[in-house]
Automatic annotation (TrEMBL):
<keyword id="KW-0223">Dioxygenase</keyword>
<keyword id="KW-0560">Oxidoreductase</keyword>
<protein>
    <submittedName>
        <fullName>Phytanoyl-CoA dioxygenase family protein</fullName>
    </submittedName>
</protein>
<dbReference type="Pfam" id="PF05721">
    <property type="entry name" value="PhyH"/>
</dbReference>
<dbReference type="InterPro" id="IPR008775">
    <property type="entry name" value="Phytyl_CoA_dOase-like"/>
</dbReference>
<dbReference type="GO" id="GO:0016706">
    <property type="term" value="F:2-oxoglutarate-dependent dioxygenase activity"/>
</dbReference>
Amino acid sequence: MTPPIYIRLSFLIEDVEEDMGPTALLPGTHGTHVNSPPWFTAPDGQPRQVPEMVLASGKAGDCLINDTSIYHTNTPNLSDRVRKVIWALYAGSRTPIWV
């Protein structure tokens, strides 16, 4: 199934470090327009460690922009801090709002 294409803006309210559960992205997969493959997520629901994987971490005030058709998944928050992020989604006028 081809997922709808959204552009996601992630505004970091506080610093988000790699142990705080940032989104894991797999560069180069944005042109596939298919859902992330099963091998990208382990049976426990957490992402597998893939050498090319990038974690969307950054400093307070950063805005991270990505095409949501890129393979992406959650990572566990292993810190004692809450990850504070504001997401804004943009889509074409004919793209379904939610599936």
